[in-house]
Protein: DNA-binding transcriptional LysR family regulator
Amino acid sequence: MDLTIHHLRCFLAVAQELHFGNAAALLRLSPSALSEQISSLERRLSRPLFDRSSRTVELTDHGRELLPLARRTVAAMDDVLDWGRGDTATPSIRVGLMVSSPGFRTIMATAAREMPHVRWQIRQLGFLGCSEALANGGVDCVFAVEIGRTPAPEFESLLLWEEACVLVTPEQHRLADRTSVRLDELAEETFVSTEDETASQRWLSSVTVDGTAPRLLPVARNFEEILESCSAGQGVNIAGESARETYSRPGVRFIPIVDSPPAATYLYLRRGRHPSPLERFARMAREFRDGSDS
Structure:
């Protein structure tokens, strides 16, 4: 059996996108070349990894079993390549971002000032791609927001800060002129959400009353798209209070929710050893948190 890292990178891209055309574009391959790589991998493993139809691509049970193994293998190879480059190459840190905030901008400005030898790359991942990009090695770390203290268990996590939540509404909404709202006033609202309804349900489950599933409008991939849909009157959303400063625009209002759990921002990293520049960056983020708490 002769497997290559390229085989596994192709597998991870298709597993992330569940679409051969999108995965091929991500890898800068033709769809036919990518399909051949996957077929070759399946032949070498003697196991089908994807169920393919004219409309859908899904992981098989074997594919789901391979997924964590492939992620660890590719991450380990990336570590070897980083080590091999040593001091001969400019270190690079790819930072994934779910939503921006004043805290994030402060950390990045400090890092750029104190680590000028690093080539910083910020990747806007939105709500759908954070876990996949980190697991697949597309980024080295991720700033992600969760409602409540419930970090993703598959990653190493560092809680950076917490903030109160606000309701995002159209400016003509029935609650738009209120100075504050309660969760029980939102039971009949439609929430503009991400295209991944499972992720949206998880995000909103801690801000619903009596366990009632919220009514979702799954049309967005990132917070900018959510805001545009809210301003168009399609529904409401919930965000951290710093969104008022970062994303303020005509057409939407940000109203404090008095009884919501906090929105928590985490720095996520893959588990295991990290290159020294990434370790230093994580320490810098921790120092920012500790300084903010004092």
User: Anything to note?
Assistant: Residues 61-85 form the longest helix (25 residues).
